[in-house]
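pasting AMP-binding protein for the record, 517 residues
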Amino acid sequence: MIINEVNRVAVGDIVRRAANRFPEKVAFVDQETEVTYRQFDEMCNQFANYLLQNGYKKGDRIVTLAGNSYEHAVAIYGIAKAGLVWVPINPGISMTEKLYILEEVETTTIIGDPAFLYSHKDDFNHYSILVFGDGNPPLGVSFLKVVNEESVEEPEVDVEDRDIAQIMFTSGTTGNPKGVAISHLSVYIASLANIIEIDIKPETKGTILMPMFHCAQHTFLTSFLHIGATSIIVNGFEPESLMKTIQREDITLMFALPIMYKAILFHPKRMNYDIQCLDTCVYAMAPMDRATLEKGVTELGAKFALGTGQTEMYPATMVFKPEEQLRRFGSYWGTSSLINDTAVMDEEGNLLPDGQVGEIVHRGPNVMEGYLHNEEATEQSRLFNWHHTGDLGYFENGQMVFVDRKKDVIKTGGENVASIKVEQTIINHPKVGNTVVVGLPHEHWTEAVTAFVIPKEGESLTSNEVISYCKEHLGGFQVPKDVVMVSELPMTSTGKIQKHVVRSSYHNHYQSETSVD
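structre below
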């Protein structure tokens, strides 16, 4: 077999090239451990060689079940160097979903953290198990032990740009999760584009705070490796601990959720820490409320940017740039990444002019190869030769404005209400910590606009206060028919509120009522 190394595009090559340019530079800081680019490249080669020496063949799927660590990164890029397929599983999903994914991808091997592996070891006893961490694990074998026994030489593997690099599973609102097959080209090109769009530099020190098993953090990790930046690994979010880490490590770029920035900027001990080193603050998953954004820009002097994308359309697909942040407030997604075309389309496949709401559609090299074992869903996602996101939006002066997920628009009393519009209003109330708005079945309204609110810590807040605030800032049909105070909301591991869980849990909320005026 002749191996194509002349003009190939392969995720594993990113690590080697960075090591050639920055051999002694620190690639990862993981608590007390520092790993240079040379060391990281060699460990990735060692793991790739272990896989190849043990009979794994191109295209075989390897599952990881783990949080953030440099070992997890070694596994991810070692799998890529071996020409195999990385399948990350979110540790937070149910055991039923985990077992479904394992069967769906036909894997024989699981790599992960002891906490996630040992709690259900009977379910994993017919898989080969590699365990992160030191010592002799009671289940499987030590990941570092097998890595350290192999050659550090680069493996010779044939990789084509459209070969599958990874299969990531989306959390479906109904039914089983769908596997999204993503090529080497998609990961490679998207992560390069992020360097330009977000202005990542070799001297950047960036957080790996969001889960590495999620596409948004993985694409940033790959971008950092491309440019030779240093990744500071953080496992779990606690505001004061993170501020200490930012100050200690002189972090310049942070990728986090809006609610995380809010928790830091309004923390009672915020001024005890010097976090002025932050130069770039990227957020995603939701818009940022005005008070938090203005406080972040003025106090830190940092550039804030919103990035959007999805597993099926490897992020970022659009960026709401720093120069626009304080000029416009609302659900702005900004402009397309330099590798994407973006348009707004109606149900018949017509592209709509500025100002008209339709489905947001994309084209570009970062579109998925397809859904695993689901040709029908793949075809539906690319009708009219565009990738369909399931998001509604419109262009305003060249900027994309996100309206809502198609499935989350509330149909109430003959009107359509964008849930995100109501959420943005409520989150700006000074006593609100977080909120979600859904439509619930109602005899009179069909769907009643209903808000679930977590008060800000230490604040006393009533439903009537929230409703009065909404009446000041929203149209009458957009004002919630009820506001429910809660202490927590169901969330994914990446901080998205699970609206389908809220809708299901409160499905009968209005059952005993007749009508609400």
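The radius of gyration is 23 Å.
DSSP finds 15 helices and 26 strands in the chain.
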